[in-house]
Design the sequence.
């Protein structure tokens, strides 16, 4: 599937036609989901918080004990892939083909993908996520690994029920994140979002949105929240590299209007991005 790829795919730095780009069927990245990845936003070739993404990739590789190329090389490949374009720069690092030395002799794949058509808002099902660590620390804590099967299954389950995606709960009660995005809501003018100690992904967009909130004087509470907190919100929104700040118009059977605070936060996020990429 090459339809959304813009330009060549860099495989270990070698520019490869997207139609023939491939990794080995013996790579544990493919066989077991053992590997890590990043998705970053390129705005006319400038990647938002590139170093932050590469730092997170380094943490992921470190947790998985996967050999990673140096920051400088990865940076150069990401900038080459971005190539002046708008889109999502994807980086995948596989676990390699050597079963006796996992994490070595692996593949690093970098390419630019065009942005999907994004709807103005999103409707979320509320699903329990028993696989989510929800605060328990393991070797994978903080890692953005290739093992996204449970996340994808949650999205597919939500879609099968007529929603766009899912909001994930720990133990059926604690609000965590979405399968590929962070969650936040507004109550009485204040922004609420789950804290990182629930082992949600350390989202670059969430961090930038909290900074944007601070810039425009929206107070923030970061903590551990129950489903009732989310369902009782005035406004709900999601945050991710691909979707940036996007209003939520339903969580399970509760409806929300895209609200004024979300709109202000979205504008403040855009301003912050513009101020950094110019
Ligand atoms: C589970 C999860 N949470 C949150 C996010 C948002 O992270 P970021 O803002 O860095 O894209 C992602 C992104 O893919 C994710 O997979």
Sequence:
């Amino acid at each position: 599937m090459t339809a959304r790829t813009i330009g060549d795919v860099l495989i270990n730095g070698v520019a490869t036609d997207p139609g023939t780009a491939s990794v080995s069927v013996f790579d544990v990245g493919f066989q077991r989901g053992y590997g890590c990845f990043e998705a970053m936003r390129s705005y006319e070739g400038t990647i938002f918080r590139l170093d932050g993404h590469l730092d997170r990739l380094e943490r992921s590789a470190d947790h998985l004990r996967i050999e990673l190329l140096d920051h400088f090389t990865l940076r150069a490949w990401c900038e080459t892939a971005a190539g002046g374009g708008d889109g999502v720069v994807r980086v995948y690092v596989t676990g390699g083909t050597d079963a006796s030395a996992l994490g070595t002799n692996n593949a690093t794949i970098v390419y630019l993908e065009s942005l999907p058509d994004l709807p103005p808002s999103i409707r979320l099902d509320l699903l329990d996520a028993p696989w989510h660590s929800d605060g328990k620390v393991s070797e994978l804590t903080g890692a953005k690994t290739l093992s996204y099967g449970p996340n994808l299954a949650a999205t597919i389950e939500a879609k099968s029920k007529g929603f766009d995606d899912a909001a994930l709960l720990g133990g059926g009660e604690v609000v965590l994140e979405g399968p590929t995005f962070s969650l936040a809501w507004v109550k009485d003018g204040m922004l609420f979002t789950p804290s990182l100690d629930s082992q949600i992904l350390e989202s670059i967009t969430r961090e930038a949105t909290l900074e944007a909130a601070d810039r425009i004087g929206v107070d923030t509470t970061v903590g551990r929240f129950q489903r009732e907190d989310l369902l009782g919100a005035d406004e709900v929104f999601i945050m991710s590299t691909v979707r940036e700040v996007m209003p939520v118009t339903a969580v399970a059977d509760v409806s929300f209007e895209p609200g004024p605070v979300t709109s202000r936060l979205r504008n403040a996020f855009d301003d912050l991005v513009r101020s950094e990429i110019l």
